[in-house]
Specification:
alpha/beta, Rossmann fold, 6-stranded mixed β-sheet, 7 helices, 6 strands, 34% helix
Length: 218
C-alpha cells in the first residue's frame, strides 16, 4: 500500500524524549524546568534516528522544550524536513510539585507520585494544570496535525504526559486511564487512523524503545 493513497492510514509516531540529566531523575520537572538530556538520553535519540531510517515521514511536530529538541536532532539531521514547533506540546505544568522528588511529593502533599494522572483528573496539583486544561491545550494541536496530514506519516516528538494526553483524545478515554500505558524514555508508540473502519484508531506499536532493541543480544 502506497502512502498518500485514499485508503492509506494516517500514521502517527509518538516519540518520547530520551533520558534526562541524572539530577532530574524521579523529579517532577514538567514544563517549568527546561532540562537537558543525559548521555544515555543522547543515545536514545541516536537509536531512534537509526530505527526510523527506512520509515517514510511527511512531517515532524515537536515540543519546544530542550530535551525534546535534543532527542529529535539526530533524526532531523538525516531528513530534509523542517520541524513544526508547537508550544502547546510542552510537558504538563506540575505547579507546586515542580522540582520535588517523588518521595517529597508524598511527604508534603500526601500523594503518591504514581497517582499523578488521577490527581490531574481531579485538578488536585496546587497551582498546576488540571486534566481539563491539559486536554484543552493539546486537542487543537492534534486536530491541526490530523487536518494537515491526511493519509500521511507524521512524527510527534514530545513528552510522556503529552503522549498519554494524545492517546486519551484519540481513544476517547479519561486521562487517568492512561496510567495503564507505560511510556518510557526514548520510546516510540505508533498509532494508525483509518476513519472508514469500525475501529478507526489502532495502536500498532506501544512503548517500543529502539535503544533497548539495539542492545538486545542476537
Amino acid at each position: 500500500m502506497k502512502a498518500h493513497l485514499p485508503d492509506h492510514p494516517t500514521q502517527l509516531y509518538l516519540i518520547r524524549h530520551g533520558e534526562v540529566e541524572e539530577k532530574y531523575h524521579r523529579v517532577f520537572g514538567g514544563s517549568r524546568i527546561d532540562m537537558a538530556l543525559s548521555p544515555l538520553g543522547h543515545d536514545h535519540g541516536a537509536a531512534l534516528a537509526r530505527w526510523m531510517e527506512g520509515s517514510k515521514l511527511d512531517a515532524v511536530y515537536v515540543s519546544p522544550m530542550l530535551r525534546v529538541q535534543q532527542t529529535i536532532a539526530p533524526l532531523l539531521a538525516r531528513r530534509s524536513l523542517t520541524p513544526v514547533i508547537m508550544p502547546d506540546l510542552r510537558e504538563v505544568d506540575f505547579g507546586e510539585w515542580t522540582g520535588l522528588r517523588w518521595e517529597e511529593v508524598k511527604e508534603k502533599f500526601g500523594t503518591s507520585a504514581f497517582d499523578w494522572l488521577e490527581v490531574l483528573d481531579q485538578a488536585g496539583i496546587p497551582q498546576g494544570e488540571s486534566a481539563t486544561a491539559l486536554l484543552a491545550r493539546v486537542r487543537p494541536c492534534l486536530a491541526q496535525i490530523l487536518q494537515d496530514n491526511p493519509h500521511r506519516s507524521v512524527a510527534i516528538a514530545c513528552h510522556g504526559g503529552i503522549i498519554r494526553v494524545i492517546l486519551a483524545l484519540l481513544l476517547d478515554l479519561p486521562l487517568s486511564r492512561m496510567a495503564h500505558f507505560s511510556i518510557e524514555y526514548g520510546s516510540v508508540t505508533v498509532v494508525e487512523l483509518q476513519p472508514e473502519k469500525k475501529h478507526a484508531i489502532e495502536i500498532e506499536l506501544l512503548n517500543f524503545c529502539p535503544l533497548r532493541d539495539d542492545r538486545t543480544p542476537v
